[in-house]
Amino acid sequence: MANIPNLLGVHALxxxxxxxxxxxxxxxxxxxxxxxxxxxxxxxxxKSIDVDHTSKTLKEFxxxxxxxxxxxxxxxxxxxxxxxxxxxxxxxxxxxxxxxKLGGDYLGGVVFSALGKYxxxxxxxxxxxxxxxxxxxxxxxxxxxxxxxxxxxxxYESNLINTGQQALDMIKNIGEKNVVVHxxxxxxxxxxxxxxxxxxxxxxxxxxxxxxxxxxGPLGTGNIDFDxxxxxxxxxxxxxxxxFESFSSAVVSPDLSSxxxxxxNLWTDNKxxxxxxxxxxxxxxxxxxx
Length: 290
Ligand code: MN
Description:
16% strand, alpha/beta, 42% helix, binds manganese (II) ion
């Protein structure tokens, strides 16, 4: 890899729609061959992951693993119902165990709510349930050396945190040091005023980044001003992980693809697409630091 200050990762859904042992091997091997140092593994159903196989394969290919997830409406800490909130918290704790067993140090994504279109705004009681559950999750994560990232997503995927500022406010209310902001340019392009000010506002609390095109297709297409975004990362001296996310109907996850609205085929050759995305990010990072 080029001499850059960031570890570059790739989301597993570029490669595979599930996580059987064969799929895990294929995804990890392809990530390494495309020049990435980390693979982000969806942990929507943490107990389904064969952690021994995955951790052995990560070691074999010299890759780091991170996990991300969104909760579901029947197991959601952002709910007034304490039973539903408890089920959400239990799932987060299971995901934490997966990260630990993979030797990882990051659990992020829509850990604060269900991933999907809510029918109504959230409520003070649901926010209180989410905040308290995230505080307990962060405290447990801290004992295991794991950072928890809150990823603001667009309004159709959560009703709780849609902007970087809302993530910063939540982190303040949680009050634990190992909770960070996880910015994703795809969502920022929908919800933020611009692509620079949320990065500056997060500053040292920015802990993880997702890079994706405006239509979630190949990098270098779409309408996002990546020069501004990578310039902002350079300005705050961001040295964390930057993970490429792209989704196409060519790879289908029964859990995730429909929730994210992946209806179109934006690429078929994932190997060349992932390699050129890595080169694109490296070139932008180098230019931003020049
Ligand atoms: Mn993302």
